[in-house]
Amino acid sequence: FGIYWSAIWVGGIAIIIDFGTKELKSMYIGLGYFISTFPSFFTPIIGGKIADFYGYQKVFWVSLIINFIAFILLLGVREPRVFKESELD
Prior knowledge:
Blueprint lengths: L1 H18 L5 H30 L1 H20 L9 H4 L1
Helix pairs in contact: 1-2, 2-3
């Protein structure tokens, strides 16, 4: 669990830094941390309530739907770095 989150934080910071301008990088990093940690407080509670009322199978279906939506949104993310063909040689 700890290794996973360490990789997520390190990789996530590197990606967030690529998307911001120099002036906005600190704000993007702060928002990235907030957006990723804030739901982690509520999701166990919500998942537990769904499991109590509807069973564990529904929790996994809800998770599948949310992850599918996240995947679709991820397809819209474009590479922030633009390379010229001569730079790749």
